[in-house]
Design brief:
Elements: H1 3-15, H2 18-25, H3 29-43, E1 48-51, E2 54-57, H4 59-83, E3 91-97, H5 102-116, E4 120-126, H6 129-137, E5 143-148, E6 155-169, E7 190-194, H7 199-210, E8 216-221, H8 224-232, E9 238-241, H9 242-247, E10 252-255, E11 261-269, H10 276-287, H11 299-306
Parallel strand pairs: 3-4, 3-5, 7-8
Antiparallel strand pairs: 1-2, 5-11, 6-9, 6-10, 6-11
Helix pairs in contact: 1-2, 1-3, 1-4, 2-3
């Protein structure tokens, strides 16, 4: 029994799928399956029931699960204990970011951080919120950047900034002027959404519910850029964060009336030891001038109006 076998075992238990576990771990599915099989042979016990394309823990697997988590957590704590002796300007930060934040909001920030602290290595993971929270809990990540609120007994969060949501319209849309647009003026149109699991989807649906606007869900994707490309081509409308508007010049982005925002912050696993290098990164985030990143047309005004009533 070795650490890699236990990590693969936990990935399969978490995802309920050998294929998804292999994708998460960045290995070929046959290699992962072979490692699990060897672990079962070493323990002389089946750990999973294979049910078509999904798998489920056996009683033996359930018994192993907490011990496997404890082993990996202990190893991670040992790694961090060694790094703790290092300077606050040298070391490693294991950072997780949700997909809708990384390109527009945090890629420029990470570039500035790298230039300011060249001896700090940032190991980046891009996943959905649920996956990042699990990796935080297991000690596989030090910090996660995501959308608030997060309700999890083992996770603590802090807000960094509030980002306006903007209406994304085709260039030739009748409402593609300069003023704010009410969601109810767009109801009945084809709404392009991210798939289940993306928090921006929930932000968009919440904004529509608050505005009492009904839409036809026409297309769903895992990529915000795909949705905006379809908006530009006239396939429908969508809502996008202000930082996405900065990177896309093909759509018309207008502030909403009433305004809508999403709260962006960082999350830590409660009780996990923060190294000096982690505190350096967090301090950088807290002092960063986020206003310069959300300066899309109409975004600043929308953010100012929306801030008092911001929600998750």
């Amino acid at each position: 029994m070795d650490v890699k076998q236990l990590r693969y075992f936990l990935a399969v238990a978490r995802t309920g799928s050998f294929v998804k576990a292999a994708e998460e771990e960045g290995v070929a599915q046959p290699s992962l399956s072979q490692m699990i099989k060897k672990l079962e042979l070493d323990l002389d016990a089946p750990l999973f029931d294979r049910l078509g394309r999904t798998v489920r823990l056996t009683a033996h697997g359930e018994a192993l699960l907490p011990h496997a988590e404890a082993v990996l957590r202990s190893i991670e704590m040992g790694r961090k204990a060694v790094e703790a002796a290092r300077s606050a300007s040298r070391g490693t930060v294991a950072l997780g970011v949700i997909p809708t934040l990384l390109p527009g909001a945090f890629a420029p920030v990470l570039d500035e951080f790298r230039k300011a602290f060249p001896e700090i290595q940032v190991h980046l993971t891009e996943r959905t919120t649920e996956n990042l929270l699990e990796k935080l809990r297991l000690g596989e990540l030090d910090i996660a950047l995501l959308v608030l609120p997060i309700r999890h007994p083992e996770i603590v969060c802090s807000e960094l900034f509030r980002e306006p949501l903007l209406a994304a319209l085709p260039p030739g849309h009748p409402l593609a002027g300069n003023g704010p647009v009410a969601l109810r003026e767009l109801q009945g149109e084809r709404l392009l959404l991210l798939r289940e699991g993306h928090c921006l989807r929930e932000n968009v649906l919440e904004a529509c519910t608050r505005a009492r606007a009904d839409f036809e869900s026409y297309f769903e994707s895992d990529q915000l850029d795909s949705l905006l490309a379809l908006v530009e081509a006239g396939f429908g409308v969508s809502l996008a964060p202000a930082t996405a508007a900065r990177r896309n010049s093909g759509c018309r982005f207008l502030p909403l009336q009433p305004p809508a925002v999403r709260r962006v912050g960082y999350a830590l696993a409660g009780g996990h030891h923060l190294l000096p290098v982690h505190r350096t990164f967090i301090q950088f985030l807290r002092k960063y001038d986020w206003k310069k990143l959300i300066g899309a047309p109409g975004a600043a005004e929308a953010g100012e109006r929306a801030a008092p009533r911001a929600g998750g």
